[in-house]
Design a protein that fits this description.
The chain is of the alpha/beta class. The protein has 2 domains: 259 residues, TIM Barrel (Alpha-Beta Barrel), CATH 3.20.20.70; 219 residues, Alpha-Beta Barrel (TIM Barrel), CATH 3.20.20.70. It is built from 21 helices and 20 strands. Strands 1-4-5-6-7-8-9-10 form an 8-stranded parallel beta barrel, surrounded by 6 helices. An 8-stranded parallel barrel has the order 11-12-13-14-15-16-17-18. Strands 2-3 form a two-stranded antiparallel sheet. β13, α16 and β14 form a beta-alpha-beta unit. α4 runs parallel beside α5. The protein is elongated and about 75 Å long. It starts with a helix and ends with a helix. The model has no long low-confidence stretch (mean pLDDT 95). The protein binds the ligand O=C(O)c1ccccc1N[C@@H]1O[C@H](COP(=O)(O)O)[C@@H](O)[C@H]1O. The site of ligand LGQLAAA5 has 27 residues, from β12, β16 and β18. Ligand LGQLAAA5 binds next to β12, β16 and β18.
């Protein structure tokens, strides 16, 4: 198995390196280095997704990626185009890395540098520092609890930061218990090389809010990074899609643009497989199901699994396609019922569209989208009480029917709300008005139901046209930013 092979090889290599340069000497070299560059400072401002750009020639899962790559020139290009941290492979056998690359890169850039390697011994941390690294990778899968704590403590004693990598809930729990501040969720299983793009979503919501989360592996395109914006990661670690790119600056700008300035789209009130297909094929980010019985869009909870199973796009996504997240919409139901339905269907978010209080939101065991309506500027003050106990706020048109009425609200008030919080804008959005809404309100996401229906039934063509319109308005925004 790969992980065993690489750890064995690392042990063998270490024996020789420790003979060539004993621990006391490498420690001395480490201590003689100038101050580390602080990764956590580099991750300011919070609320945006930073890029850790990786310099690697090869990987065991993909083979030779970029045989002619110039490590220093590539790292400089990364920095010039907005990378916050440079990750450097130093492992020579499987990744064709080298300590020399790390030192040369550290001298050529002004951002922090990560030693990306299979660290199993404190000696390697002193080495990392001696070579110039500001941060080290610690992989939970190859360390027991005692080793993890010890290596974290050695890194801290050298004023280095550690990126503690996990690939399961159990490893995430261990990382937190060991005191890891920066936790990387690797979508790739290092034993089988299998990818699980949904792992970050599931692990993210169990991690304490005060940890810095890094998404690792398999980050290639706009849809990949749009998802990361939903999981509130502070950084994405990207290697392969950069080193194989023919145009690295454009690839970096695309990743950063879509991770930080894209508009999330939720298509709500779905009840039929063909409309789920249409939403997925068009690139919807979230699918909403209404569990409010008086609504004509009501769907029985047990029916949701059936319609998803009958949706070909959901059960057999195209290669590389990542499925949208599932949102359940509830109005003034009790928390136990909501939590039970969420578990039963596997909902990812709960939208509360009634009079639910901030205290009630805290009883929901999934990230909460709280719908609020704004009638006058004074109503903006109500948002504050919900901000810390919800995942996102949703601004909908005030109506007696709670929502889904097809009526637009006050976009000026919504714009003010969007300046304070990441909001979803809902209420009367249509193919015709959505571009204006995005331009005027600048919401984090938009939510539509009536506007993609014909005679009270979802309309696949309208769903596709609506999402295309949103993406088009983003392209226009990008062009405006560039000129
Ligand atoms: O759509 C419904 O029937 C509904 C019922 C009760 C609460 C919320 C509901 N829908 C939400 O309303 C907006 C969509 O509004 P519109 O139809 O586009 O005007 C969205 O947040 C839905 O989740």
């Amino acid at each position: 198995m790969f992980l065993d092979r690489i750890v064995n090889q690392t042990r063998i290599d270490l024996i020789q390196r420790k003979i060539d340069l004993p621990l006391e000497q490498i420690k001395q070299q480490a201590l003689e280095q100038s101050r580390t560059r602080d990764v956590l400072e580099a991750f300011e401002p919070q609320g945006r997704v930073h890029l850790i750009a990786e310099v690697k020639r090869a990987s065991p899962s993909k083979g030779l990626l970029a045989p002619d790559l110039d490590p220093v020139a590539t790292a400089m290009l990364y920095e010039q185009n907005g990378a916050t941290v440079i990750s450097v492979l130093t492992e020579p056998h499987f990744f064709l890395g080298s300590p020399d690359y790390l030192t040369a890169i550290k001298n050529a850039v002004s951002v922090p540098v990560l030693r990306k390697d299979f660290i199993i011994d404190e000696y390697q941390i002193y080495e990392a520092r001696a070579w110039g690294a500001d941060m080290v990778l610690l992989i939970c899968a190859i360390l027991d609890d005692q080793q993890l704590r010890h290596l974290l403590q050695v890194a801290t004693s050298l004023r280095m930061r550690a990126l503690v990598e996990v690939h399961s809930q159990e490893e995430a729990r261990r990382a937190v218990a060991a005191g890891a501040v920066i936790i990387g969720v690797n979508s790739r299983n290092l034993t089988t090389f299998e990818m699980n793009p949904y792992l970050i979503r599931d692990i993210r919501r169990t991690l304490p809010g005060d940890r810095v989360i890094v998404a690792e592996s398999g980050i290639h395109n706009a849809a990949d990074v749009r998802r990361l914006a939903r999981y509130d990661v502070q950084a994405m670690l990207v290697g392969e899609s950069l080193v194989v790119s023919k145009d690295i600056p454009t690839q970096i700008q695309m990743l950063l643009q879509h991770a930080n300035h894209t508009t999330q789209v939720k298509i709500c009130g779905l009840r039929e497989p063909e409309h789920i297909n249409a939403a997925i094929d068009a690139g919807a980010d979230m699918l909403g199901f209404i569990f409010h019985k008086p609504s004509h869009r009501y769907i029985q909870p047990e029916r949701v699994s059936e319609v998803l199973a009958a949706s070909q796009s959901y059960t057999q996504p195209r290669k590389g396609q990542v499925l949208p997240d599932l949102v359940g919409v509830f109005v003034n139901q009790d928390a136990d019922t909501i939590n039970a339905i969420a578990d039963q269907i596997g909902l990812h978010y709960i939208q509360l569209h009634g009079n639910e209080t901030p205290e009630f939101c805290q009883r929901i065991k999934r990230p909460v989208i709280k719908a609020l309506s704004l009638q006058q500027p004074a109503d903006l003050a109500r948002l504050a009480a919900y901000r810390d106990v919800t995942w996102r706020l949703l601004i909908d048109t005030p109506t007696a029917d709670w929502g889904g009425t097809g009526r637009t609200g006050d976009w000026e008030l919504a714009r003010l709300a969007a300046q304070q919080s990441k909001i979803l804008l809902a209420g009367g959005l249509t193919i015709e008005n959505v571009a204006t809404a995005i331009r005027q309100v600048q919401p984090w996401g938009i939510d539509v139901s009536s506007g993609v229906e014909t005679e009270r039934r979802k309309d696949s063509q309208k769903i596709a046209a609506f999402i295309a319109q949103v993406r088009q308005s983003e392209n226009n925004k990008q062009e405006l930013l560039e000129h």
